[in-house]
Prior knowledge:
Elements: E1 3-7, H1 11-23, E2 28-31, H2 34-40, E3 46-52, H3 60-69, E4 76-80, H4 85-93, E5 98-101, H5 106-138, H6 142-152, H7 157-164, H8 168-182, H9 187-195
Amino acid sequence: MSQIFIVDDDDAIRDALGWLFRSRGHTVRTWPSAEALIGSGEIAHCGCLLLDIRMDGMSGLELFGWLHEHGHDMPVIFLTGHGDVPMAVGAIKQGAFDFVEKPFNDNELVDRALAALDMHQQQQSKRAAAQAIEERVAQLTQREIEVMERVLAGQMNKVIASDLGVTMRTVEVHRARIFEKMGVRSAVELAQVLAARK
């Protein structure tokens, strides 16, 4: 289950944020440092990360870079002091979801975190769907892929048969197998399914 993770070296802010999200019915984990989060081995369970931009030891920006290097793509909302806004804007250009200035408005912060969670869940669903399509494509033979490419290009069966040096009946059999393996009933559906993996 996706959770909200909070990394801030200020005990009071960490406790207040933990209470805020728990009071709204959300599962929350908190850490006092970037190193503590990395060492926990819990990163894979993070749905949205609220991250202080300035901390002792590894900074929030350094943790953000570490997450990217290690293939973690959960949405990150930076918690910033006024002087940190230029850094936070730079982080957004590198893919952070948002930044919220301290002192923050409770409702605004919760709204942004929920929007980030929703976005993350949609991305995960899209990735899972794309993976399922790739698995279907992997079941096709090389000849079926050749036929599929020509079907998608709008070629008629007799043209495909001529191009590939096979009979029309052979093309019809390949076409039927492609549709069956891909779980579609028409060339239009096939094109829609393959477009969804992008």
